């Protein structure tokens, strides 16, 4: 009985925290990783820096929405598979509901020009800068790893393709393996993942089976909801690099086939930028345009299902690999590269699309100080950012 009460308490805690993050995490996938780091690593200490960096590195490897996969992974480690589902629902549902409502009620609203959104983007600058400083201090303590981080920063900044992050992480892993194979990291961290390898294999089998079979079933049946499911599932399965990369894939799937007009597509994309949570929830808007709120929920399920199957299918084996002394050396290189990739993403697109005038930089400095030095909770920073964005337009 006590065990059941503790489990219920844990799941409720996961739901409340992930929902709060889902309501306040503006700024895209890299900013989400900053919010997660602040909440789960710094504040609640559900996992340590190295385990978090390992999880981020794995999710950068996998196709799909990296920040959502990190959130799912943290939820699973805290509360099992059900914890992962609850963590996903809490983080994702607020933006899904908001985007379906945008389509059903506020389709003509021009969200791209609202000044408070700019304030929230400046919040993302402060949050990501704080996360990068903390991770860099822990994961790049020596000159070799600082150099790996610099390599990752330069390459990922100058070579911006869908596969650049994966390539950088692979190269960094090889460099780390060579440099640190004789001096593997002595700090052995706990990385509990309560999923069996048998269940993991089932998840991976289902992932590849759906990827192969759905197009065949689509052609054989011509049922519209199967075609819808297939398009979103394939988009979620084949995207490296996060939400912004999924835009051309989804556009290619739905605009030329006249499922949705170019104008409606772009209006929804503007709305997706305005809400917190993962950008992949743009699928909820597209599904709602095509088949009402039921279509929105189906599209959301389809585009995020690959992320679930991949994270549940790979993490149990990841845990085994990271305990191998030789693999640890490679992970030291990978973790350093993650820092460089985060700095690159911090500059472009976060900094370049946000810090446009001196007042933007000044406000970002204030928000950063509120977060780092005054130790105010993130939701206060978010509210301040929104109000500041409104006030700055009158200055």
Q: What's the structural blueprint in terms of helices and strands?
A:
Blueprint: H1 2-24, H2 29-43, H3 49-61, H4 66-104, H5 115-139, H6 143-158, H7 164-180, H8 197-221, H9 224-237, H10 243-254, H11 262-274, H12 282-322, H13 325-351, H14 358-372, H15 378-392
Beta strand %: under 5%
Question: Given the structure, what is the number of helices?
Answer: 15
- Global outline: globular
- Percent range for helical residues? over 70%
Succession of helices and strands: HHHHHHHHHHHHHHH
Give the termini separation.
60 Å
> Quick one: how many beta strands?
0
Mean pLDDT: 84
Radius of gyration over all CA atoms, rounded: 21 Å
Subcellular location: Cell membrane
GO molecular function, one term: chromate transmembrane transporter activity
Keywords: Cell membrane, Membrane, Transmembrane, Transmembrane helix
Family: Belongs to the chromate ion transporter (CHR) (TC 2.A.51) family.
Provide key terms for this protein.
globular, cell membrane, ChrA protein, 395 residues, transmembrane, transmembrane helix, chromate transmembrane transporter activity
């Amino acid at each position: 009985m006590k065990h059941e009460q503790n489990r219920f308490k844990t799941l409720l805690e996961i739901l409340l925290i992930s929902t709060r993050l889902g309501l306040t995490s503006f700024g895209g996938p890299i900013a989400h990783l900053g919010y997660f780091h602040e909440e789960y690593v710094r504040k609640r200490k559900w996992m340590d820096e190295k385990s978090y960096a390992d999880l981020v590195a794995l999710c950068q490897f996998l196709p799909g929405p990296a920040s959502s996969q990190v959130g799912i992974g943290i939820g699973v480690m805290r509360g099992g598979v059900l914890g992962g589902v609850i963590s996903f629902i809490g983080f994702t549902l607020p933006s899904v509901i908001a985007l379906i409502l945008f389509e059903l009620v506020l389709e003509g609203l021009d969200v791209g020009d609202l000044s408070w959104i700019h304030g929230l983007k400046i919040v993302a600058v402060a949050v990501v800068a704080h996360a990068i400083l903390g991770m860099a201090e822990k994961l790049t303590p020596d000159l070799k790893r600082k150099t790996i981080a610099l390599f990752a920063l330069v390459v990922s900044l100058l070579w911006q393709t869908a596969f650049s992050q994966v390539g950088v992480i692979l190269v960094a892993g090889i460099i780390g393996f060579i440099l640190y194979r004789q001096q593997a990291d002595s700090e052995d961290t706990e990385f509990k993942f309560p999923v069996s390898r048998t269940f993991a294999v089932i998840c991976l089998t289902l992932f590849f089976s759906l990827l192969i079979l759905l197009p065949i079933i689509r052609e054989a049946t011509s049922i519209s909801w199967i075609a819808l499911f297939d398009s979103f599932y394939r988009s979620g399965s084949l995207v490296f690099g996060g939400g912004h990369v999924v835009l051309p894939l989804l556009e290619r799937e739905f605009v030329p086939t006249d499922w949705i007009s170019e104008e409606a597509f772009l209006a929804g994309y503007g709305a997706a930028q305005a809400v917190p949570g993962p950008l992949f929830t743009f699928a909820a808007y597209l599904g709602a345009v095509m088949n009402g709120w039921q279509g929105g929920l189906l599209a959301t399920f389809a585009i995020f299902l690959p992320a679930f199957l991949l994270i549940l299918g790979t993490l149990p084996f990841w845990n085994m690999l990271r305990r191998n002394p030789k693999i640890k050396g490679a992970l030291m290189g990978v973790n350093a590269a993650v820092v460089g990739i985060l700095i690159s993403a911090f500059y472009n697109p976060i900094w370049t699309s946000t810090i446009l005038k001196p007042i933007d930089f000044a406000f970002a400095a204030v928000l950063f100080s509120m977060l780092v030095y005054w130790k105010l909770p993130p939701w206060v920073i978010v509210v301040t950012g929104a109000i500041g964005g409104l006030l700055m337009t009158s200055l």
